[in-house]
Specification:
heterotrimer, A alpha/beta, B alpha/beta, C alpha+beta, B: alpha/beta, Elongation Factor Tu (Ef-tu), domain 3, seven-stranded mixed sheet, six-stranded antiparallel sheet, 7 helices, 15 strands, globular, C: alpha+beta, 2 domains, eight-stranded mixed sheet, four-stranded antiparallel sheet
Amino acid sequence: MDAFKKRVKELLAEKSVNLVIGYEEADDKSARALFMSAPGDADRLILDSRCVQNLALYLKKKEIRKLGKIAIVAPLHVVRSVLQMASENQIKEKEVILLSPAPDKTLQELADFKGMEGYVAQNPAALPEKDLETIRKLDAMTPSERFAFWRKEFAKCIKCYACRAACPMCFCGRCQVEYNQPQIVTVEATPLGNLEWHFMRAMHLAGRCVNCGECGRSCPVGIPVHLLSFKTCLTVKESFDARAGMGAEMKSVMSNFRPEDKENFIK
Amino acid sequence: MSKKSIYRPYLMRIETVTEEAPLVKTLRLKFVNEEEGRAFTFHAGQFAEYCVFGEGECTFCIASSPTRKDYIECTFRETGKVTRALSMCGPGDIIGFRGPYGNRFPLDDWKGKNLLFITGGIALPPLRSVIWNCLDRRDEFGDITILYGARTVADLVYKNELNAWAARSDIKLILTVDPGGATPDWKGKIDLVPTVLGQAAPSSVNTIALLCGPPIMIKFTLPVLVQLGFANENIFTTLENRMKCGCGKCGRCNVGPLFVCKDGPVFTLKQLKDLPQEY
Amino acid sequence: MKIETRLLKKGSLEKLVLDLHTAGKRILAPIKNDGKADFAEITGLNQMTEDYIATARSAKSVVFPKAETLFEADVTRDNVALTDRDLDKLPDTILLGTRPCDAAGLESLGSIFLWDTVDDVYAARRKKATLISISCNQCDAKCFCTSVNGGPGGTAGSDILLTRMENGDFLAEIITEKGKALAEQYAPLFEPAPEINKEKHLAKVPVVFDVKELVKKIQSGFDSPAWMQQSLRCIGCGACAFVCPTCACFDIQDIRKGKHASRKRSWDSCGFSMFTLHASGHNPRTTQDSRWRQRVMHKFAYMPERQNTLGCTGCGRCGRSCSVDMNLKEHLIHLCKAL
């Protein structure tokens, strides 16, 4: 931890970066985002298993990007998000420095995309067992049982869009639901409209989601939204042997095709 | 008749559609229910929510004068979903009209005073309501001066009425278009509104200034008015903000503690100076 | 009306719920699902959980649902036929287990919806709602009702307030005429109350700021850099506004199915980037700090000035539901010092 604090202080003192985003302890002992602009701010920095928020989302905020070069204290899911955002032209080389924990908890500074790619290659990511268990249960259901499950969950949805706001990949300046010509999904929260919203979002994230689980964690009414994306990611891995957030080059399955792809309707 | 919901609009039949300028139309509306039409009153400066059922509502001022009881007029530019739907309506179609909302231009306070109207482009409609209202009560007011400009000649709205005003001896009408916006037969001025105002230099003595226009025009016109000696409480303008309910409930249109839909849209410069500049 | 006190034994509350259900009333009470308590319909007291500080969502859905129809229209070539909501068809609803902060929230909502032009849809729902609230014998770190003119035993907005005692019986305070009518209708269940020290059964919620001072500071704090500092981690979703018992901002949209149109109202939030976006593309609030400032000033500056009401009851839901810990209590304490 000290290495992290020391490096953050150095970066800010040297003005190599104008802002470092990390984690601090909140009143209730959970972790929350910390914005450090003076070296002294780094004394509040923490980095442990409580640090689950995907800080890459703050790269969506223009008032933060305007501050110039940024460093982020980045656990694995943040690194993957930054790479995925880079592959989609949201971040350029050298705009962001990542301070990540190596497997032995020491500081690994990732100053460019190559460094980040090396980091994700050596750190395997796995879906939490609890969620895999639920997915297995859902897979074992009949389609109508599964649909009934999701219909019941999404009836609770209040369309607060916390799931969208918490996700670094939902960076569209104007989301599809914010267009009214045409109005693809109804504005108000209705059972059918909620399903439409969530299924649309899951499809927009297929192959792009790094499985940080933030969408589910941020839901104020407890819908396990993240499971939809987890499942699509498992499907993408199985069908295309691809995962999001592994490199800075655009390779998302929904945005690319290879001549060897098995679908033959294009032939 | 059952109690009407505050969100329920009047049904209005479109009588005429006038193309004022590219993408700008005026609708003349009549109440489908004549009794409602007879009972309906409003004041110059107030606005309403106009809708195409199934598409949505949008907010425009009431552009006709309260002294003309037979009809309601609105003028709008096609900008989004609802204005597009309104643009596709024709004579005979029925739309919704919910209002009147907002405060008013305090015409009764201005008896005996001179009135100076300064406006540009599609900001003439709210002032047009006041202008016709004053012209219908002409004796109550002193000199009336109208300074109206647009980017090009084609963008001037109410072209027929401009001719009618020009022909009257009891109004001084100054028209202008931006440099590059004139046609070969244009007889008016060619300059920006603030500049023309400075040149015309109307007296501020016993005069109320009504200023409506795009933010950039207001920004550069206000200093000229102040320089001409107009006091802040004698400069009136209208604010626009995104609206939904029109009656102070949906929380969307506030500027500081005031709602544009309830405490406005008419404000004096003096009031605006006390508000946060968040509009 | 002078508050009267009664004793409602636990068994009597069970019977009351049963009797109300038999009488055809819709009873909403907190039930626990996956660790979160939320209002749902019950037919018996045993379905209700007692294990909650506050429900995840507020009770405002009863008077101001997340989506509702304002009216419907059928469009033909020559005519439009409008159909009003039949507000008489709204069900009589008993809200059981609202906390004092929920009930106070309804008062705050009323200061908007019943202000000036009375919102008939809201008024009808409010009239049909009876609140049998239960005061708080515990609180958590997010609660701050006592700092905003409320308290764990506050009676504002409730028709009957029950305070649970150690033996499971309740002190019942009959607060409004509506509450009185209900207590009289089920008189045998509401027994005479002995002297009971209500305070002893209430949670201790520490006061963390002087709200009068805070309102004054916020009213003159528009230009403070504190708003940017506080809002950096805000992600601009609507979670806080939607779970809040006092947030009343809404959107109006039309839905069309062929020739049939409905005008709908739904929850909206000043935290969304498009909340104030004009059709021209101009937006008075382009960054999250101006939207955060609007949220706090609306509740603590503008509403006190216009409606003479605070827009916050200290329920702490925003703090519990926010995934980035935009802890309003903490921010308000910070504003006391920063402004």
